[in-house]
Structure formats: structure tokens, C-alpha cells
Design brief:
Pfam families: DUF4185. It comes from Streptomyces wadayamensis. Residues 40-64 are annotated as: Disordered. Keywords: Signal. By secondary structure, the chain is mainly beta. It has a single domain (27-361), classed as Tachylectin-2, Chain A, CATH 2.115.10.20. The protein is 2% helix and 42% strand. It contains 2 helices and 22 strands. The strands form 5 sheets. The protein has a 5-stranded antiparallel β-sheet, with no helix packed on it. The chain has a 5-stranded mixed β-sheet with strand order 15-16-17-18-19, with no helix packed on it. It is globular and about 55 Å long. The two termini are 32 Å apart.
Amino acid sequence: MHGPTPSGPRPSRRALLRGAAGGGLALTGLAAAAPGASATARAPGARATGAKVRDLTGPAQTGRFGAPWTDLGIPVRCPDGSMLLVCGDTFDGGGVGGPDWRSPVGLRSSNADPAALTVDGCVGGGRAVGLVPEGHEGGTTAIPSDVFTVGSTMYMHLMRGVIYRTHHSDFWRSDDNGETWQYLCQWPGDQYGGQFQQKTYAVADDGYCYVLSTVFNRDITSGLLLHRVRQDALGNPAAYEPWGYAGGAWAWGNPPTTVTAARRWGEICFRAMDGGYALSWLNMAPLDLRAQFFPLPTSNLFTTPEQTTIVPTVPGREGGNAVASPYGGFIVPGSTVGDLHLAVSQWYDAQNYRVMQYRINGLTR
């Protein structure tokens, strides 16, 4: 539950989660090292069109699983062919802040076709349970930033601490389609000046996963860092190799430098797709959701066009790809550049907090 500030009033997240949303993270100058780096995001190219496909969560969709109020819904195809939506802060009762606060939870669609996603099950049987231990003492939570599958194993990355004040991030694996999770490792919240807090993984066909990361705090300008890690060493922090610019050249093993313009990032989603790679993210200034498509993990993102996928609006004026208080933007497996499906979250009051599916058209490589 961490949407951008909407145009109208909404409950205080600090009050709802019983913790301050401030933060003391600071950049360490990494963003300035790369040629062409800038603290200002480029204006995006031509706007795509799109439309809402369906609500994926809500009282009617997921209330019977004790999860009427939830967000994020990171979609991952499980080894058994089902689709798991890994959600963030989840509540029962009458709205956001209600009883039985859990995070993360797993909601399942037995049909993984993007055209037929419907939550018809959950991790926990009849009632969605927390996937990992998290007691929320002192207002802490466990926010998923990515979930992905390599072979018969699923992996989940979580950001832990009071919201936007990440103490550490940790990494988990599941060998039973997301039903149970085993702890692998963790990273300190201040690594690379905080720019290794929020991670997203693209599973490549060369034996590597490529990892993009940012600060997890929308009020702080962050670079976007790139690492690679062999798929058989995902749980070993020492195996993550940075990509950086030094001595006049980009190379693996250099200290990490930002691979695109530093900015205020929301959620990020990095995927191998259509013979290349896709990056979807929530952009904070100006507020919209964007995507880039490029041939290689090391492609020049400073010059790759940024294409708008979702635009903000106010409640009552939604339509097409205009969404009130949008965030998230996780790519649904099975998407293509020409037929992109996104899991988009929304939160602007206690009863408007959900995950929705949007189909975006008109994007180009």
C-alpha cells in the first residue's frame, strides 16, 4: 500500500501503518558518474492508448479470501502453470487499515492467460495468509518488489522496515508454486546509498538474471543501477556483479553507476520479453507510468524512448488509460510490446484500494 499522492484527500499512510514515512537515505554521487546523467526525466514520446480489462482484487473479487483490500499484485507464472499475484499491505474488514494486516500475500489465478485472469484461489487455502513472518511491530512491513520464476523455483524480493525507511531487503525461494517460502539472504538498506533497496529481475536465456534497482522512497532522487547474477547463484549477495562507467568505458565489475537519468522512482518492473527487454515504472515527476523497450540489458537507456502507458486523473474521470492515483505497473507474463498487460494499483480512499489489469496498445520498440 504505497500509492502516489492523489489530487484529493486520503487517509494518512503514517496513521494507517503506525509509522513515519520519512527517511534519511542520501545519494552517494553515483548518478553523476555516467555520461549524460541528469536529475530531470526526459519528456516521454507519443502516448499509447489503453483500457481497463478488469479489477483483479476488491471485495467482490478477493473478499472471500480475506483480502478485499490489497495492492501491487506482482504477477508471476508458477511452474505448475498458474498465475500468482503477490500483493502488498492487505486488510480485511471495511477498508484500508482494517483488521488482519498481512504483507505479502499470494492470490492465485488457475488460468495464466492474460485474457482470462481471475483470482480463484490463494496461498493459505480458504484465507490468504502472510507468505513470510512479519509482525508489523512498530509499523514495519514487508513490501514485495519482485517475484519471478527460474525453472521449477520461484524467487521473491522484499523490502523490510517502516514504509520508505528500508532497514534491509531480503530474498526468498519457493519450490512448491509459492505455497511455502524459504529465506535465502539479505542486503543492508544503505547499500549503494540506498539504491539497492528496490530490485527487479529479468530472467535471461544466457544463464543470468539482470537486476535493476533504486531507492525505495518516492521523495528521494535515485539512480537506476544494473547488476547481473548467475541463475544458480541468486541467493549469494557476493555473486551480484555491477555494471558501471569508469575510465571512459562501461564494463561489468566497475562500481555501479546509474544507467539512466536519476529521478524519483516508484515501482519498477524489468522483464525479458519479445526477444529483448522491457522496463515499466511509476514516474513521480511528472506523475505517470512509463515503459522502455530495448534489445540488451546494457542498452543505453539515456537515449531509449520513454513511452507513457498510464496517465493520472481524478476520481470520476477515469477512462481509457487514465487512472486516479495509479501506481505499480507490473508486466503480466504473456505480454508483448504490441499487447502489453499491466497490473496497476490504485489508492485514493479507504474503499478504493485495489489491483487492476490494464491492456496498453500503440507501444513501439
